[in-house]
Amino acid sequence: MKVHAVVVTYRPGPVGPLIRALAAQCAHVTVVDNTPGGDEELAAVCTGAGAELVELGDNMGIAAAHNIGISAALENGADAVLLSDQDSIIPAGMVETLVSHLDRGVGAVGPVPVEGTDELVYTDHRWGPKRAPLPAGAQEIEVSFLLASGCLIERTVLEDVGLMNAALFIDHVDLEWGMRARRAGYRLIAIPTAVLEHSLGDSVVKVPGRDQVVHIHSPIRNYYLIRNTLALIKTDLLPRQWRVRYVYWITRFSIFNVLINADRRERARYVVRGFIDGVTGRMGRYGR
């Protein structure tokens, strides 16, 4: 199977190990860079690894960048596309392992992303996707959605389900695509034997009485998370109980992020704007 990798970057820093690891396991690597003005160091890394670099010259968002890379991969004859972001570490043999689990009815397959001690795998529960301990000895786990980084999608599935929703810009892009794939009848599978070291790029806090850490996003990411959550709630992609849960979650999320951070006034502005744009349907890049 001819697998093409698509890496989306934004002010990436040292991504040489990632790109070289992907180049060793995939037939072709396309790096789509959202960094305004480009990145000379990234260009040199891509040249050295034999990867194709597409410089967008501005931040067009992760979904639009994925779509550009996916379209290029399909035009170049890819049988499947592997998505990656800049904050992941690709283990040896991961792509081969994922390919071996692609089967009829599987829309996408991915590794188990791990950040610290947290396994970022989400499975179905009555009130929405939830992280839970992985079943001991499981070879495959059917999940609610797959994180984009490490996600392997066959060509035929992309042609059937479609590309990423560029209007979301960032946040919930993988959830929205996963729900569309499931609505089309495909299963989404995580493979416990393939472990991907991943970083969400946020600071974390430990809340008393809660086992999992809470991620603290930047104020602008608060905006996207709130707006895009409301946008998803307004669709028919989520079951009714999930929509109810997400309304509760985004309300609690907003209050928590305003109260726990010192920049309360700035965050409050983004939170309010996120609710307004989510309700009115104003999508795309913030401020445009």
Number of strands: 14
Number of helices: 9
Ends distance = 41 Å
CATH top level of the largest domain? Alpha Beta
Principal-axes geometry comes out as: globular
Q: Using the CA coordinates, give the radius of gyration.
A: 18 Å
Profile the largest sheet: 10 strands, mixed
Explain briefly what this protein structure is.
The chain is 39% helix and 22% strand. The strands form three sheets. Strands 1, 2, 3, 4, 5, 6, 7, 10, 11 and 12 form a ten-stranded mixed beta sheet that branches.
Structure characteristics:
39% helix; two-stranded antiparallel ribbon; Spore Coat Polysaccharide Biosynthesis Protein SpsA, Chain A; 2 domains; alpha/beta; single chain; 10-stranded mixed sheet
Task: Give an overview of the whole structure.
The protein is of the alpha/beta class and 288 residues long. The chain has two domains: 3-198, Spore Coat Polysaccharide Biosynthesis Protein SpsA, Chain A, CATH 3.90.550.60; 203-280, no CATH class. The protein has nine helices and 14 strands. The chain has helices at 16-25, 40-49, 62-75, 94-100, 155-161, 173-183, 219-233, 240-260, 264-280, and strands spanning 3-9, 28-33, 52-55, 80-85, 88-89, 106-115, 118-119, 122-123, 130-131, 141-142, 152-154, 187-198, 203-205, 214-216. The strands form three sheets. Strands 1, 2, 3, 4, 5, 6, 7, 10, 11 and 12 form a ten-stranded mixed sheet that branches. A two-stranded antiparallel sheet has the order 8-9. A hairpin with an 8-residue loop joins strand 13 (203-205) and strand 14 (214-216). Helix 7 (219-233) packs parallel to helix 9 (264-280). The longest helix is centred in the C-terminal third of the chain and has 21 residues, at 240-260. It is globular. The model has no long low-confidence stretch (mean pLDDT 92).
